[in-house]
Amino acid sequence: MMERLDTRLDSWKLALERLRSAQSADWAEAGRLVAEIARTSVDATLRQAAEQALPVLRQAVENDDHGVTLAAQRRIGVVLEVVHDLTAPRFGRRNATPKQLSSEDRARKMLGLPLAVQLTCEDINQAYRRAAKGMHPDHGGSTQAFIDLAAARDVLIHPGAHKDA
Asked: Which residues form the signal peptide (predicted)?
């Protein structure tokens, strides 16, 4: 499905570039192409750009006015720009799942401690006491959350004793 969509975008891009670079554009063909884009595109921005271009392109078919021709060329350019944005390569890993945190990093987050700072036992115990006030079962917290909090403190105080899960 995604491959078919990419193929369709590439063919639209080529056709739009051909129409835009032509000495005298065939506005009827441009109208058919943009109507197809407006009808079949799954991207809302591309669909909207195509729908906005259609009236100007239809007007350019039967009009020799230079202003209308320029407006039609600009509209083709807008649709082409949206297609370029959709087909441009994306760098990085935008849709990648986040990296799994180590047990130490999960413990630091649970206690509200920074991830990349050297901690002393006193820092860990202060963070534990601060977090435990709200999570203790006697003060409305859950028993499991309190046990998890104590385990997080143990992981940070004795880092080599626990394996990553």
From this structure: none
